[in-house]
Amino acid sequence: MFLRTALLVLKKDFAIEVKTLEILVTTLFFAVSCVLVFSFAFVKEGQAPPDAAAGILWIAIAFSGTLALGRTFERERYAETLRALLLAPAPRPALYVGKLLGILVLLALDALILVPLIALLFTAPLFARPLLLLLLLAGGTVGFAAVGTLFAAMLIRSRTRDVLLPILLYPITVPVIICGVRGTAALLESPPDETTAVMWLGILFALDVVFLTLALWTFEPLMTE
Length: 225
Prior knowledge:
Elements (H helix, E strand, L loop, with lengths): L1 H19 L1 H21 L9 H26 L3 H7 L4 H30 L8 H25 L6 H27 L6 H31 L1
């Protein structure tokens, strides 16, 4: 029942997004614009600072993820969709997992465009260790989206949700972004520092476990109130 409910919520969001492409196009446009602005600022005569690519990658993911979180839950306000979901005879944490999976799919599509673009513009060897980079991106997006999905759902009834979401989200997800940046920067060294990248990856997965556990535990009481 739990998994079925989560997949049904994901299917609903996916079907709406396929018809409109509203969130995907908006977040991609925003992320690509962010990368282009940084490339004009930092790339001089074809050379960029060594660690710039790692920071810009995670900044673009964080900013586009925040935009996706706000727009995804904005839909649930229309016609009291969220109220209908909460009244359904289904585990409420499953609703959280379904929304989380939808955000993760959007962030994965963003990363699929951002990584080659940043590698090209900043001449960064992001594909030197593709498996480690993939694990870092997966761990970082899960941690960021786990907290963001909880806060976006909690703030859906607030008139100042667009302002409050980043104010609440960024201070808590700073450790996730730091781990992602430092781990990615280690992979950009010559030669790649795999030991350091694995260390940051371990910390990242530990944060994911903590954030997911707390989010699943607090989602139902927060949404009840």
